[in-house]
Specification:
Layout lengths: L3 H6 L4 E2 L3 E9 L3 E8 L5 E7 L1 H4 L2 H16 L8 E6 L6 E6 L3 E3 H8 L4 H20 L2 E2 L8 E5 L5 E5 L6 E2 L24 H4 L7 H17 L9 H10 L14 H10 L11 H10 L4 H7 L7 H6 L25 E6 L2 E6 L10 H4 L6 H29 L5 H5 L66 E2 L2 E2 L4
Antiparallel strand pairs: 1-2, 2-3, 3-4, 4-6, 5-6, 7-9, 8-11, 9-10, 12-13, 14-15
Helix pairs in contact: 5-7, 5-10
Amino acid sequence: MSDLGDASARVGAVVGGKYSLTSLLGVGGMGAVYAAENTWTRRSVALKLLHPEFARSREVAERFMQEAQLASQLRHPNIVDVLDLGQDPGDGSLYIVQELLQGNDLRTVLDASGRVDVQSALDVALPLMGALALAHRRGVVHRDIKPENIFIAGDEHGESTPKLIDFGISKATAQGRDDRNLTQAGTLVGTPNYMSPEQARGDANLDGQTDVWSLGVVLYEMLSGKLPFDAPNQNVLMVKIIMEPAPRIESVAPDLPAALAEVVHTALANDRSARYPDMLTFAAALIGCSDAAPTLFERHRRSLPPEIGALLHVAPRTTPRTQPPPNAPLAVAEAGPMERAMVGQTIVDRPATQGTPVGWSQEAASVPAASSSSGRRAVVIAGLVSLALVVSAASVWLIQRPSVSPTHAATPGVRPPPPRVVAPVALPPPPAPSLAVIPPAAPVAPLMEPAPRRAVRVVTLPPPRRVPPRGAPSVATQNGAPILSP
């Protein structure tokens, strides 16, 4: 399968026992890409199929499998998802199954428009920077950043998402992988127009700075419609990239802001010490040169790593606080009926509600509520104290009131004795309530009413009748005088 005709002939075949090829999407030097359907799940996918003759090459087969393994480990919204990897049992072809994207690659967009506006260029570059920053952190260098490997995927809402779709020549630099020098020193890999100087020289120790350069070339092309380096053949092109500084972008796009032009040329510095050291620094500089930097950062926050916020001095997004801070002063959210209660050792007024009122601080909420039994005990104690005070007052009143004796009143001319003065009884102070403060009680009538004074009538009794001695004759009387018989 070495040409378009052979690739088209595979449409309709089933690969790997479950992927039915429905249409041809593209053909490359080492394989073809098809739209396919998983016959088990009915999901539409993209299937990259390696030509059978290349599958017999150990180096090509390892590189092909490495692409799938690296991409599947880099879960990012701007990196295409790898769903499966396998080998067709029929002819031994290797295949990679990826998510099926709708849209066009960046090469198709640039061929149609020539160049894009600044906002569109930033909307493509910044998400890719976030994806590459993740790859570099995992020790993966892409080494083939170019418009053909950047897909502008659209969704049903009309939103566009740029995605890296090819890790075919990516290199793992810090994962402990033995890629067996799939890229030997002095071997050129990549697309010449987008190669960094160190990549053009064939250096073996490539790191994330080579992707910084390549993405700088893509940004240069999007903003100006031109490539920084071009030549009639590959050899001359390599010499220019290695030896010459990149032409100033203002010479082909004089309308660009000066700050943006400076960012592009820093990314294209031949001297690696003058180039941005990593993708995070590049992204921060690109955001910072915009007049709407905070808005631009928020727009792409989902794609960018959080460390960029520190480089830009942007505060991280926080969830609004739903509770007052600790040790906040007590405050009532809404006015309402109040009640007195003890909080610790302090008497406070608070809304007459059960539980902790809404709007109180955490300190007030942490005070345990008094139990119902404690409340009843406080009421009983307060009632007993009030009763003792009433009884004491009644006793003092009864002792101190003047008393009238019937004997004294019955004797004419005799004055009654003066009332006795009784010292008041000293009572111990009532115990203070421990859980509640009872308002002053209303005046209570004494339990024992004083007896009412009754008028005494003086009665004069007749003298006692004299009884004659026994045996003496009785004498009749009239009005006290004896009646003499004739």
